[in-house]
Specification:
- It contains six helices and five strands; from the N terminus they run αββααβαββαα.
- It is α/β, with parallel strands linked by helices.
- The protein has a single domain, classed as Collagenase (Catalytic Domain) (3-Layer(aba) Sandwich), CATH 3.40.390.
- It starts with a helix and ends with a helix.
- The N terminus is likely disordered.
- Bound molecules: zinc ion (ZN).
- Zinc ion binds next to helix 1, helix 5 and helix 6.
């Protein structure tokens, strides 16, 4: 929790970093979901991501033949939409017009490097919601549904309140979402 709180403080710092505005997104666009444009660096294994999320609403990729591999990206986008809806249910905050970005980076060192390059930020956490550009960055090799849901909660909370709640309160809410997802989706 302490580490997570540290990440949130960084989010607030980043929110004020105007120099990073307008920079291009690293990674290529995989798919457009209802709530997220999904990007990934080369080397991110979409199938592996899907097996890690492993939700009830996930269409099992195994049901698709190798000839339909290209559909995995769309399945990922739909799965993330499902996760968004689940986080919305947990918070009881429903913003149907929400649209953000999720960028999957291969691992934590790559994530640190990306944030250093784009925002000149020293970052050693595994995921972050960057408020100023409405982007979630996550290390694919460390990703868990709880971690992703935590950042999605930050995005939803930031959009819902006219004045963003204090950092500590946001962490309590995002932490509650993470806890609930972990409980609901035990591996
Ligand atoms: Zn947080």
């Amino acid at each position: 929790m302490k580490k997570i709180f540290g990440a949130m403080v960084l989010v607030m710092l980043l929110a004020g970093a105007g120099s990073a505005r307008g920079q291009e997104q690293r990674g290529r666009l995989l798919a457009e979901g209802s709530y997220f444009s999904v990007y990934a660096e080369p080397g991110v294994d979409v199938y592996r991501l899907l097996t890690k999320i492993d939700y009830e609403y996930l269409v099992q990729p195994r049901a698709f033949g190798a000839e339909k591999q290209e559909n995995l990206n769309d399945i990922l986008a739909r799965t993330l939409d499902g996760l968004y809806q689940e986080v919305s249910d947990i918070l009881d905050i429903h913003i149907y017009s929400f649209k953000g970005k999720i960028v999957f980076v291969t691992d934590q060192p790559s994530l640190g490097q990306l944030l250093k390059e784009q925002y000149n930020l020293d970052f050693d956490e595994r995921s972050i919601y960057y408020y100023d550009q409405n982007v979630i960055y996550v290390s694919a090799s460390d990703m868990t549904p709880g971690m992703l849901g935590h950042e999605i909660a930050h995005a939803i909370i930031s959009h819902y309140f006219v004045v963003p709640p204090p950092t500590k309160l946001q962490e309590v809410l995002a932490g509650y979402v993470e806890y609930t997802l972990r409980k609901n989706h035990r591996p």
